[in-house]
């Protein structure tokens, strides 16, 4: 799984709507890719912050910022 594929599936992973076999791939990518691990941790923290304030959905803006950030980090490392 590439970072691009990972990021495309991350929302489903957090929503719990991801297919079982894809979930395994997502977890494996997280273990292997420190960049995406950071994104996941940041996203999880963001979700938890918003959950406390009853704003559960991660805004498109926040998600796009996260994805842009990770893509720029991955670029040049041959992982995206
Ligand atoms: Zn990655």
TrEMBL record:
Top-level taxon of origin: Bacteria
Putative zinc-finger domain ranges (all copies): 3-36
InterPro entries per UniProt: Znf_put
Designated name of the protein: Zf-HC2 domain-containing protein
Naturally occurring in which organism (per UniProt): Terriglobus albidus
């Amino acid at each position: 799984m590439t970072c691009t594929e990972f990021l495309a599936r991350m929302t489903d992973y957090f929503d719990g709507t991801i297919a079982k076999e894809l979930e395994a791939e997502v977890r494996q990518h997280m273990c292997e890719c420190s960049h995406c691990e950071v994104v996941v941790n940041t996203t999880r923290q963001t979700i938890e912050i918003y959950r406390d304030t009853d704003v559960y959905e991660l805004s498109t803006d926040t998600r796009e910022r996260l994805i842009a950030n990770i893509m720029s980090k991955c670029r040049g490392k041959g992982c995206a």
